[in-house]
Amino acid sequence: MKGLLFLIGSLLLVSCAVLPAIRPVAGLAEKNIMCPSPFLTEKIRLIHAIEVRAAGQVQTVMIGVTMTNPVTRTISCALMSAEGMALFEAVSGPDGLKVSRALPPFDAADFARKMMDDIDLIFLAPQGALTEKGVFVTGETVCRRHKEPGGWIDVLQGHGGPIHIRRYSEGGRLQRSVTLAGGSANPYSTIDLQASERVDYSLIMTLIESETVRDEPQRKE
Amino acid sequence: MIQVASMKKIFMVLLILLVLLPASVCADNFERLRRDSSRISTISADFVQKKFMKILSKPLVSEGKFYYTAPDSIRWEYSKPIKSVVISDKGNTKRYIASGGKMVEDKTGGAQAMKIVLDEVAGWMSGKFTSNPSFISTLKEGSNTQITLTPVGKSMAGMIEKIEITVSRKDASIKSVRIVESATAETRIDFQHVVINQEIQPSVFQDVQ
Question: Which CATH superfamily is domain B2-205 in?
Answer without folding.
Answer: Lipoprotein localisation LolA/LolB/LppX (2.50.20.10)
